[in-house]
């Protein structure tokens, strides 16, 4: 299960998470792991598009997260990948930087949780794709998926 931040304009129109440009990159990340989008569940912390695409406020994350927690309970994912700081900080209740949060496993209510960079951030800073690929390989190892393939652009 991948968990992002909030719907953007495309997601708001289509009513589906990660269907815009960041979603295309997420799809490629999923494919590079040897999976298809149908194999994974994708959700957001925030269920409505924040005005002007601003970063969600903490109280907005707290208001929406019970819905996400119900999704997690229903899906019972093998592992959770938190995409970006909003997802990671909300799920882990930690205020560390992305650099500190990523690269290791956490426990979220008895489910293993990994943190990696948000695809929208990777579109702005593609140099971080290499580090992201390391995080995804950690997840692949846990899931018993074959290593390695190259992450597609
Ligand atoms: N960014 C997100 O965090 N979620 C989406 O659904 C789309 C872009």
Give a description of the structure.
This protein is an alpha/beta fold. Helix content is 46%, strand content 14%. The protein has a single domain (2-143), classed as Uracil-DNA Glycosylase, subunit E (3-Layer(aba) Sandwich), CATH 3.40.470. It has helices at residues 9-14, 21-32, 58-75, 84-92, 98-101, 119-124, 129-143; strands at 2-4, 42-44, 79-83, 105-108, 111-116. A five-stranded mixed β-sheet has the order 2-1-3-5-4. The mean pLDDT is 95. The structure holds uracil.
Which features does this protein show?
alpha/beta, Uracil-DNA Glycosylase, subunit E, 14% strand, binds uracil
Radius of gyration: 14 Å
Mean pLDDT: 95
CATH architecture: 3-Layer(aba) Sandwich
- Provide the number of structural domains: 1
Largest sheet features: 5 strands, mixed
Enumerate how many helices there are, as a single number: 7
Report the portion of residues in β strands. Answer: 5-15%
What layout of secondary structure does this protein have?
Layout (H helix, E strand, L loop, with lengths): L1 E3 L4 H6 L6 H12 L9 E3 L13 H18 L3 E5 H9 L5 H4 L3 E4 L2 E6 L2 H6 L4 H15 L10
Parallel strand pairs: 1-2, 1-3, 3-5
Antiparallel strand pairs: 4-5
The chain binds uracil (URA).
In short:
By secondary structure, this protein is α/β, with parallel strands linked by helices. It has helices at 9-14, 21-32, 58-75, 84-92, 98-101, 119-124, 129-143; strands spanning 2-4, 42-44, 79-83, 105-108, 111-116.
């Amino acid at each position: 299960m991948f968990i992002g931040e909030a719907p953007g304009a495309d997601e708001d129109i289509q009513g589906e998470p990660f269907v815009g440009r960041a979603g295309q990159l997420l799809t490629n990340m999923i494919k590079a792991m040897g999976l298809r989008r149908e194999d994974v569940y994708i959700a957001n912390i925030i269920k409505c598009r924040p005005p002007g695409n601003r970063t969600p406020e903490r109280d907005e994350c707290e208001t929406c997260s019970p819905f996400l927690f119900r999704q997690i309970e229903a899906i019972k994912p093998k592992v959770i990948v938190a995409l970006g700081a909003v997802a990671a900080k909300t799920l882990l209740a930690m205020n560390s930087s992305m650099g500190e949060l990523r690269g290791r496993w956490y426990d979220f209510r008895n489910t293993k949780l990994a943190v990696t960079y948000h695809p929208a951030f990777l579109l702005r800073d593609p140099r971080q794709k290499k580090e992201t690929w390391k995080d995804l390989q950690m997840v692949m190892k846990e899931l018993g998926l074959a290593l390695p393939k190259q992450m597609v652009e």
